[in-house]
Amino acid sequence: MGKSSSGPIGLYIHVPFCRSKCPYCDFFSLCGAENLMDDYTGCIINQINFFSEKIHRPADTLYFGGGTPSLLGGRRIARITEAARRAFGLNGAEITVEANPGSELSGFMEEVHAAGVNRISLGLQSANVEELRLLGRSHTPCDATRAVQSARKAGIENISLDLMLAVQGQNKASLINSMDFCAGLGVPHISAYILTLEPRTVYWKNRKSLRLPDEEASAGLYLTTCNELEKRGYHQYEISNFAKAGFESSHNLKYWHCEEYLGLGPSAHSYINGRRFHFESSLQKFLHGSAPVQDGEGGSFDEFAMLRLRLAEGLTDSACRERFGMPIPGRIRRAAKFYESCGLTSCWSGGFRFTPHGFLLSNTLTAEVLFALPKTPSSAPYNT
Amino acid sequence: MNIPRKNIRNFCIIAHIDHGKSTLADRILELTDSVPLREMEDQILDNMDLEREHGITIKSHAVTLLYHAENGQDYIFNLIDTPGHVDFNYEVSRSLAACEGAVLVVDATQGIEAQTLANTYLAVDAGLEILPVINKIDLPSAQPEKVRKEIEDVIGIPADEAPCISAKLGTNVGEVMEQIVKDVPPPKGDGNAPLKALIFDSYYDSYKGAVAHIRVFDGTVKPGDVIRMMSAGGEFTVVDCGYMRATKFEPAECLSAGDVGVISASIKDVREARVGDTITLAANPAKKALPGYRPAQPMVFCGIYPADGAKYPELKDALEKLQLNDAALSFEPETSAALGFGFRCGFLGLLHMEVVQERLEREYSLDLITTAPSVIYHLKLTDGTSIEIDNPTNYPDPSKIAEAEEPIANAHIYTPKDYIGAIMDLCQERRGTFIDMDYLDTDRVDIHYELPLNEIIYDFFDALKSRTRGYASFDYELSGYKKSSLVKLDILINSEPVDALSFIIHSDKAYPRARRMVQKLKEKIPRQLFEIPIQACVGGRIIARETVKALRKDVLAKCYGGDISRKKKLLEKQKEGKKRMRQIGSVEIPKDAFLSVLKLDE
């Protein structure tokens, strides 16, 4: 087991409220529970205070995810941020709020900016009206433009837009159009997620009648994204994340660097003092102060390597040495070298990374690289 | 037990599979009050779960029962239950040799089947008094009179007195008991002559060592005696002897001529107490052993490997333990480039092979990969030497082979006449040579074929069953070797030969089998990070090919909000799954794939 990091942690707040449920989304959220927002906010603040006394470590990122955090309203976001600042310092912290471009956001942006929020993540998904309709989204590309303008007007320049890949009706041209739309707005960060069918979603229930791009087409759309965003100055730093230099999400990088974070709110996950745990996906339980579920020890080499290999910086000897006191094991390095000839990895003397082709196959490729079978030995391992 | 020799009856029950042999044995046990009712479980003699499930008897069992007959006298019934399968013919013949009589059970709904005849002939050869019994008369489709006639016509023994019984319900089983008293002759023998005792079964007991089931023909044996195995040669001091009662061992002061019982003598290995060997006293040995001993001869071979390579020592240990009880099982270490370390195992036949595999998996919780079964081929080489091959790995370069021979079996298939066509098609496909066909009655026939043994050991039983809806029965014995045109079929995965998938096959069968194998492998090998060609080749020439396409997309795109549990679970599953994979070059092949090519459905 590697040493646990003792630096500043990340803070994640899961906001489990939505106006309506998107048919592809399986994140925990409730519709029509607005009456519980004040209780929820109070409960989050209590938990912030409780954990800060337990952990005694500062935080340098804060992220409001959801759900639809903007639905909580600027004042509640501000109260939580204020409590977090008192408890965890948040000196020079990156503070992100996810927002739904479908609603009027100018007042909201002013309020959260005043509270210290300096990064906004907008769920654009697509700049194509038909694709948005098929995704069950009620906003238009114009709404997104207005949301970006509101953020900027309030003083928030660090804006990220989410895109979805391999959605119904999407083709290479419409995808490039969506990317041009984002680039045209001049935002410094884009996340582009390949649509995954998740159980317990409307999409899953209707999966037979959905006309999603097939495996081959999805792969093509993903590679196009990597390529075209690179051309537009967004370098890929994670499987699904692209940024202009210096605008990578510090908070999300903590996950992929296997650094520690505290997640509060129903369904939020934490990794603190070497232990992983999560709150159950139930607002009622959370409001009643139900204790989080323990998920055991975190930070094993496999976990570390798996997370690192989501990043363009890849797995490096120096990172392994710093964390585990040893360079990348030889068998892993040899396996990585083998897949370089297939175009799936890129190796250098101090480490290796997955290429976009490799990212596309990262589930299998990670296992192949980390757990490569030894060749059948040539001598008997036991007395026979 | 103070009962004179004239009141001892040593008998067995012979029957085709499922004709009710073990059920009748259960009823006999009840009628002799040998088993308290609460301990009565169906088919109590079939100890192994496997035997109960398959409805077959794999090991011989012998029990000593006390019967109070209608004439007021007490009798000792030594009931020797025999295996009902052709693989164990030798064991059957030794069990029969321990008896004076045989109860022949024939199913009133099925009539005479392949093994009914095979076993009856063995019993007649052994000079036993045959008592036919017609069973299952409780079933609506029972035709006892027709079956009675069949017994007389086909087997040629009188059946007018054959009791019609229902072993299941117990109907008329008492009649069978009285016939045993009346018609099975008491054992002969001289209690004062030098000891001659036949081992008809042995098993391993962790406290006593090898325990032999014996029938004493002459002389007497008691604890303290030094005994000698006349074929194996070992000498041992008898620790105890006695009777195997239905539920427990009952010690005796001695075992004398006519007795059936068990004997233990701190024998460490069942191979020192082989079935068929004769026990005598070292101090006063018999001049001649009892006839009929032969060491077990494996006919079918396959490689057995642990699915998880690290379980090799466990597999070795399990095989050694099984061999303690099964002198017919042979094994030696073998290495496969594809499967790593395992064992080349030899079996009496297919059933024996299946039983051993199932016991390894169940009783020892091992996950196994087995290679295609093989028979022993005789090859004459161009340099004039001859070799025997049971492993495709050792198959020589074809240019060095002058002539090849394969084992041939004499096969009898008993079937209702409706299926004659289907069976002849099957036998023809399996390169059979038709010999002749006899009508057993107006409806049923005995089809006699010569079949190459290597055609039987694949899925012949399954094919026969499915084509005759289970109505046909089948029996075979090895009849010799015949000249044949053999080739070795190799499978290449990603251009690497996979030794564990090679086999020796008749040249006419190579192409269709190759096609089926590559198709099946394509289904079973999961798509991987690159394209994988699967090729079948004979002598360097590719005769079939399929391709497993490469994966294109396999990614959890969204891994954020700190919830890495899914990715972690997947990774753990993948890590675990690796244990069930075998690496061939750069390709991983699931254990499944190796097994699937052994069962290529028609």
Chain-wise SSE layout:
The complex is a heterodimer of chains A (384) and B (602).
Chain A: E1 9-15, E2 17-18, E3 30-31, H1 37-55, E4 59-66, H2 69-72, H3 74-88, E5 89-99, H4 106-114, E6 119-125, H5 129-134, H6 141-154, E7 158-165, H7 172-185, E8 189-194, H8 202-205, H9 215-231, E9 235-238, E10 241-243, H10 250-256, E11 261-264, E12 269-272, E13 275-278, H11 283-287, E14 293-297, H12 301-308, E15 315-316, H13 317-324, H14 330-340, E16 345-348, E17 351-354, H15 356-360, H16 362-370
Parallel strand pairs in A: 1-4, 1-11, 2-3, 4-5, 5-6, 6-7, 7-8
Antiparallel strand pairs in A: 8-10, 9-10, 12-13, 13-14, 15-17, 16-17
Helix pairs in contact in A: 1-3, 3-4, 4-6, 7-9
Chain B: E1 8-15, H1 21-31, H2 49-54, E2 61-68, E3 74-81, H3 89-97, E4 101-107, H4 114-125, E5 129-135, H5 144-155, H6 173-183, E6 196-205, E7 209-218, E8 220-221, E9 226-229, E10 235-237, E11 240-244, E12 249-251, E13 255-256, E14 260-267, E15 278-281, E16 300-306, H7 312-325, E17 330-336, E18 340-347, H8 350-363, E19 368-370, E20 377-381, E21 386-389, E22 401-416, H9 420-429, E23 433-439, E24 444-452, H10 453-456, H11 460-467, E25 473-484, E26 486-493, E27 496-497, E28 503-506, H12 507-524, E29 532-538, E30 541-548, H13 565-578, E31 581-584, E32 587-590, H14 591-596
Parallel strand pairs in B: 1-3, 1-4, 4-5
Antiparallel strand pairs in B: 2-3, 6-7, 6-15, 7-14, 8-13, 9-10, 9-15, 11-12, 11-14, 16-18, 16-19, 17-18, 20-21, 20-22, 22-24, 22-25, 23-24, 26-27, 26-28, 26-29, 29-30, 31-32
CATH architecture of the largest domain in chain A: Alpha-Beta Barrel
Give the strand line-up of the largest sheet of chain B.
10-9-15-6-7-14-11-12
Q: Please tally the helical runs of chain A, counting DSSP H or I stretches of 4 or more residues.
A: 16
Our estimate of the beta-strand percent of chain B is 25-35%
The class by helix and strand makeup of chain B works out as alpha+beta
Q: From the 3D structure, determine the CATH topology of the largest domain in chain A.
A: TIM Barrel
* Number of discrete domains of chain A: 2
Please tally the β strands of chain B and state the result: 32
Name the helicity range of chain A.
Answer: 40-55%
The biggest beta sheet of chain A is recorded as: 9 strands, mixed
CATH superfamily of the largest domain in chain A: Aldolase class I
Quaternary class: heterodimer
User: Kindly, what is the distance between the CA atoms of the first and last residues of chain A, rounded to a whole number of angstroms?
Assistant: 35 Å
Low-confidence stretches of chain A: 376-384
* Largest beta-sheet details of chain B: 8 strands, antiparallel
Number of strands of chain A: 17
